[in-house]
Amino acid sequence: EQIEKGGYEHFMLKEIFEQPNAITNAFRGRLLPALEMIKMEGVQNNLSQFLEAKRIIIVACGTSWHAGLVAEYIIEELTRIPVEVEYASEFKYRNPIITPKDVVIAISQSGETADTLAAIKLAKEQGALVYGVCNVVGSSIARETHAGAYTHAGPEIGVASTKAFTTQITILTLVALHLAKEKGSLTKTEFNELVHELERIPEKVVEVLQVSDAIKEIAQSYAHATNCLFLGRGVNFPVALEGALKLKEISYIHAEGYPAAEMKHGPIALIDENMPVIVIAINKGHYEKTVSNIQEIKSRKGKIIAIVTKGDVVVKEMADHVIEVPETLEWLTPLLTTIPLQLLSYHMAVLLGKNVDQPRNLAKSVTVE
Ligand code: G6P
């Protein structure tokens, strides 16, 4: 097992650090900047169904559902096709309206999640095209779907999903770009800018990973916390949800993810000097509004850990701790902002002596509905 961990203390840490390679493997052969194109075979082979789709319905569970929420922002913005994201378990049991004009995208690391599999079967019965995004090759979901793309993240052993999440987002970004190109919903310049920038994401992830030791120190100050709040806006709101889920899963600290602006409708009541608030405050998507949310936390003495864009000065003045991520295009920021949150929950859990790779009560794949 030590050999499999490749010198890392835990599989989770190894998998966090594998993300630059995992993302590269996810887009290899698919992201073709020199040719100014994207090659997603499963999309190409079903192009008319995708382009004529009245809407795309994404079904998934857990972390994969969060990747679906990120993709909702990206696909809608880049392609202007309406997207809905559903918990697979809820979808199946509420007699959903699905027509042959819908495209269903099922996301699953293991490819074995029973609820997701059940949602796929229902969607197929109603005549929808079902596209799968799976990590495990030859898994049940990969076999049940009409078309799809593997994430190629490599085996994920840690129960808390990390590299599966960022590679799922990578694949769904490629799907969005492929459709945008075919649909003409982006200008050539916008398309090429995104494609070139996506190619640079792995090296930027390498840069973010360098903050691991600094995050370990921050974790030391907050490992005693009983509650944590994670805030983000826009495409980084689901990243806040994922950050909270990671912390709950492995450190057993209660955490909630919220859209930053919704804080005033509830969670603000919880804020005092004992409440760490992790805010994704990058310089994209209504940055000034996030800054005023941070002010609201500060005036209630909440402790602020902010994820900011490199070179930020405004939030740095206000926050108790800042973690920098490199500048990138708004739609690609989740691939960077996710990393410090994974590291934060990892270091907190290790400090608390928890079983990071196999947290209590959780399973890597859930094969019961
Ligand atoms: C379990 C795992 C999670 C995972 C979820 C969905 O709860 O512990 O890490 O996100 O299932 O799994 P899937 O394999 O379908 O992505």
Describe this structure in words.
- The chain is α/β, with parallel strands linked by helices and 369 residues long.
- Helices cover 46% and strands 17% of the residues.
- It has 15 helices and 12 strands.
- It has helices at 11-17, 19-27, 41-44, 47-51, 62-79, 88-93, 114-125, 140-144, 163-183, 188-209, 212-222, 237-251, 287-298, 314-318, 334-351; strands at 31-32, 37-38, 55-60, 83-87, 102-108, 129-134, 147-150, 227-232, 254-259, 276-280, 303-309, 321-325.
- The strands form 3 sheets. A 5-stranded parallel sheet has the order 4-3-5-6-7, sandwiched between helices.
- The radius of gyration is 20 Å and the shape is globular.
- The chain starts with 10 loop residues before the first helix and ends in an 18-residue tail after the last helix.
- The mean pLDDT is 95.
- Bound molecules: 6-O-phosphono-alpha-D-glucopyranose (G6P).
